[in-house]
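Reopening: C-alpha cells for the cytidine-5'-triphosphate complex, inputs below.
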Amino acid sequence: MKSIFAKKKVLIGVTAGIAAYKIHFLIRNLIKKGAEVKVMMTPDAQNFVTPLSLSTLSKNPVITDFYSQDGTWHNHVELALWADVLLIAPCTTNTLAKLANGLSDNFLVATYLSAKCPVMIAPAMDLDMYAHPSTEANLTKLQNYGNRIVPAEEGELASGLVGKGRMAEPETIEAYLEDYFYTSDYHSELKGKKLLITAGPTYEPIDPVRFIGNHSSGKMGFAIAEEASRRGAEVILISGPTALQPIHSKIKRISVKSAKEMMEEVFNYYEEVDVAIMSAAVADYTPKVVADQKIKKNDAEFTIELIKNPDILKTMGEQKTHQLLVGFALETQNEEENAKGKLQRKNLDFIVLNSLQDSGAGFQKDTNKIKIFTKDQEVFDFGLKSKNEVAQDILNLVEEKLKA
Ligand code: CTP
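Re-run output (same inputs, fresh job):
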C-alpha cells in the first residue's frame, strides 16, 4: 500500500533544544516513506545539531538565516508556501513565546508567520518552564490560532529532573503528522464510526500472586487500534495485561485482567459500536476457586480445577444486531477447517486466521501472516507482513464490507 507520506512536503523548524538530536530519526523515517523534507534552524539550534547532518538526511539544503554567506537571500514566504505542513520540533520556550506573540527576529519565526499550511508544534523544555502559566497561556493562544500541539511527555529531562517537558518521541510526532494527512486527503469508511477492539491475553487468577495466562503481546490488536484511529474512527480498545501503550491519544483504552472482566467491558460498549474486532487471546478456562491467600506448598500433588469461561465472541455473535463482527483464530492444526467452523459457530462477518506453523507469525512477533475467510465464502491470503500492514489489510476489508 502506498504510504500516506508519499510526495508530502514537510517543512521542519528546529530550535535550540537538546531534543533536536531526535529529529534525525523523524526525518529519516519521513524520507523513507516518500515525503519531501526541508529543514530550517534557528541560529542557536546549530549549537545542538549541525546543518550538515540535517541536510544530508533531508536531501535538501538547510536554511539557518535570511542570507547565505554568499549573499543569497532566502525567501521565507516561498518556503512557507511550498510546505503541506510545518512542524516546529523541538520548540523551545523562547520560540514558543515568539510564535505566540508574532515576533519575527529569525528566519524560522518569519516563515511561521508567513505559513498558510497547518502548523504543528512539539514543545521541549524543563518541567518548571513547561508548567509555567506563561507557557500554558502561549500554548493555549497558539492552539486558538489553529496550530496543533504535540504535547510534551513525562520523563527524565536534560537537567536531570524528572517530569513533563520532554519532546514527544519521533514516532509520536510522526503519528500526529500521519493523522493530519489521513484526515486531510483520505476518505475512510471508518471516519466517525465506532470500533471496539480487544487485544492481549487474559490472566485467570489462582491466588493473589498467581494466574493462568498466555503469550499474547497485544501487538496485533494495538496495531489495528492505531490504524483505525488514524482513519478517523472512534476506538475503544479493551486490553488484557500488556506493556503496550496506545500512541494515538484519541484511543480509549480500557484495561482488564480476566476473561470475565473483558466480557463485562465488551458488553458495556457492544450495543453502540459499528464494528467489533476481537483479537484478544481469551483464556477458555478459569480456576473454579480463587484462593484468598497465597497458596503454600506442601508435599502433596496440587490440582487446579478449571471451569469454562464465557465465550465472549460467541455471545456477541448471538446478540448481533447491526455490528460488523470480526474474530481471530489461532490454530496449530487443521487451520482452515477450524477457522471456518468458528466463523459459522460464532456468527461472524469474517475471521482472521493466524497459523502458528508460519514462521514470523503469532505471539510476541512484529510480523504476521494471515488468511481471511468471510461469511460469503471469500478467501483472502496475505503474505508475511508487519503487524501494521496486516492491520491495514484487515481494516481495508472492514471498509469494503461497510460500503457494501
Ligand atoms: N474468544 C472469545 N472468548 C473466549 C475464547 C475466544 O471471545 N472465551 C474469541 C477470540 O478473541 C477470537 C476467537 O474467539 O477472536 C477465537 O479464539 P480461539 O482461541 O482461536 O478459539 P476458541 O473459540 O477459544 O476455540 P479453541 O480454543 O478450541 O481453538
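The chain has a mean pLDDT of 93. The chain has 13 helices and 21 strands. Marking as resolved unless the reporter disagrees.
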